[in-house]
Amino acid sequence: MLPPGFRHNWNLKISANDILIEADKLINNSREILDKIGSVSDESVSYHTLLKELADFDCEYNSNIGLLTLLRHVSTDQAVRDASTEAEAKFEAFDIEIEMRQDIFNKLLILQKKQEDMKPEAKRYLEKLIQRGERGGLHLPEETQKQVKDLKTRLTELGIQFQKNLNEETTVLEFTEEELDGLTQDFLSGLQKNEKSGKFEVTLKYPHAFPVLRKCRNENTRHRMHVAFNSRCMNENKHILEELVKLRKQHALLLGFPSHPAYIMDILMAKTPETVHSFLTELWHDLTPLWEKERAYMLELKEAECKEMNKIFDGKLNEWDVKYYITKVEEKKYAVDNEKLKEYFPLPVVTEGLLNIYQELLSLKFKEIENAEVWHEDVKLYSVHDSEHQTLLGYFYLDLFPRPGKYGHAAVCSIQPTCLLADGSRQISICAMVANFTKPLADKPSLLDHQEVVTFFHEFGHVMHNICKRQEFAYFSRVERDFIEAPSQMLENWCWEVESLKRMSAHYSDKSEIPHDIIHLLVNSKLANVGYLNLRQVVLAMYDLKIHSEPESDLRQMFYAINRDVLNIEVPSETFMPSAFGHLAGGYDARYYGYLWSEVYSMDMFDTVFKNGNLFNAEAGMKYRNSILKPGGTKDAYDMLVDFLGREPSRDAFLRSKGLTKKESN
Question: Given this model, what pLDDT does residue 8 score?
C-alpha cells in the first residue's frame, strides 16, 4: 500500500524493460494530449481550453516521469540504471518536442492578444510559455527551427552521457598502510584490502578521496589521489565538454544571442554576462588579500613539516597540498581537531537534530514511514505535515550512503511536484535527498565532519523548498537558477551557531555534549581559509563563463590559466578537473556563478531576519516559508527578496561573512 498522496504507479521493483515500455507509453499518450490541445480552433482559444489544459498536462507528465528518471541515480541494478538513463534521454528529447510545438505556440499568441482576464499566476504562466517558445525559435523560419531542435537534442544526449560516465566511474587505487600515514584507524578499518597485494583499496568517492587529500602526511599519496580524482572520466568527458560548448554557442547564435551566456542569463537575475563578469572580478579583487595571507601561512606550515620530516622545502604550494594545509590551518590557527570533532557528529544524532530544527523553524511535522518501500535498505521515507493545520504537504526520502553506480555528489531529486490538479485538489510534493556520507562501521556509527554537516543542512534546505512550494502550476516548481541556491545557503548558517550545533551533536559513545571550548573554536573557524575557498568558486565560475564565451579555445589550457591568474597555483598537466565537473553538463552551464551570486542574498536574509536571537523563531520561520519558499517560481526572485527583507537587497552582510567590510572591499 502506498502512503496517501502518491498518485502514480510507484513500483520500485520495475524492470529495466518495463521502464522503457512505460517511458514510450507516457510519451505516446502525452503526444496525443498535446495534439488535442493544439487542434482547438482559433475562435475557441481561452484560458480553459488552452492554458488550463496545458497546466493539467504539465502536472501529469512531470509526475509520471519522476520515478523512471530517479532510478538512474539510485538503483542498485546496472540494467535498471541504464534503462532509466535511456528513458531520461527519451524524455529530454520529448521535452524539446513539447517546447517546439508551433501549433500550441500560435494558440498561446492568440490567447495573449485576447487579453482574457486571468489570475496573476495564470497570466505569468502564459507569458513564460510564450517566452519559452521564442527561446526555442518558434518565431523563426522553419529551417532555423529544425536546426535549433537538432542542436538541443544533441546537447541533451551529451549531457546525459557526461553524467552517466561519472556515476559509473569505478577507479580504485591501492596503498600500503605506510602510504596512508595520517589517516585514522577508523578510516583504514572501513577500507577493503586486496587479497593478492595486501594493500588497502581506496576509491575516488568522496568518503575516501577527501580524507586522503585532507589528512595523509605522505605527499606522494596525496599527489596520486589528487591526480586520479581530478582525472576522472577525462578521456570520455573532455571530448563531450568540448562538443557541448561549441554546440551551445551555435544554438545561441541561431536564436539571435551573441553567446551562450547571453542566452542563458537573459531570463535570470543577472541578465547579462557583463554583470556576472564584473561581480566575479570584484569578488576576486576583494578576496585576493585574504588569500595571500592564507597562502603565506600555509607555506610556513609546509616548510615546518618538511623540516620535521627531513624533506627539502620547494617553496611551492602545490594543488595537491591545498586541502591538506587547509586542514592544518584549521587545526593550528583555530585549534580545530577535525577527527575529535567528528566524534560529536554521529549521523543519527545530526539527522535527529537537523530534522527537529527544521520542524521548529518552519512549523512542520515530520514522521518516518515504517516499512516503506524503498530502493535500498539504507533509504528512509518521511511524511511532512503543516504543524498548525495538520495538512499533508509531501514526502521526502533520505538516501545518505555511497554505493556502486549511485550519484556521486549530493543533490535533491524532485519526484512529484506540487500543483493543482484538474479537479482543483492539490497534489503534494515528493522528493529524494541523495548524499554520500561515510557508512557506519560494526562498532561505530557514521561520523560526519563539519563540512558534511553543512552539506546535509544545505541539501535538506532544497528538500524543504520542494515541500513548501504551493504554486498552482507545476511549471513554477522552478525558480531562477541564479537564485535557486539562496534558500539553502541561507540555512547553512545554522551550522555555525552554538545553539543549533548543540542541538545536532553528542558524542557517539557516551552521548556527552560537545564541549564549550570545542564548539566555540569551530564557530570561530568559519573564517578559516575563506579567501581560498571563495576564490576557488570564482575560478570555477569564471571558467564556466569563459568556456561558454570562447568555446573554440583550448579548454584545458584555459583552466590552467584561470587557476594561475586567480589562485597563483599550477594545475598538474596530467589532470583536467572539468571532466568530472558535472555542473557544466547538468544544468549549471553558464550559471555556476549562481552559487556565489545567491550567497549574497542568503547572507542578507540571515543577518536581517534570523541572526540576532531568531534562530528558532517560528514567526520568522513562517515569514521565510511564506515569502521565499512557498511562491516557487510564481514571482521574480528579486521581488521575493524585497518582500522578505522589507527593502532592496544589500551586499554588506555577504562581505562581513567573509571577514571584509564594505570599505576594505572597495
Answer: 66
The pLDDT score that the predictor gives to residue 241 is 98
DSSP string, 49-73: IIIHHHHHHHHHHHHHHHHHHHHHH
Tell me if 264 sits within 8 A of 594, measured CB to CB. no
* pTM for the model: 0.90
Question: pLDDT by residue (tens digit) across 499-529?
Answer: 999 999 999 999 999 999 999 999 999 999 9
b/e code 116-131 from CB counts within 10 Å (16+ = b): beeeebbbbbbebbbe
CB 658 within 8 A of CB 283: no
Residues 6+ apart with CB under 8 A from 16: 77, 79, 80, 82, 83
Residue 432 shares a structural domain with residue 477: yes
pLDDT of residue 665: 47
Residue ending a domain, choose from 211, 232, 253: 232
Residue 546 backbone dihedrals phi, psi, to 5 degrees:
-75, -40
Mean pLDDT computed over 588-608: 96
Which residue bears the cell 540576532? Answer: 612
**91 and 177 co-located in one domain:** no
Query: Does 509 lie in the same domain as 423?
Result: yes
pLDDT, tens only, 208-219: 999 999 999 999
Rounded to whole angstroms, how far apart are CA atoms 204 and 210? 9
Enumerate the active-site residues.
459
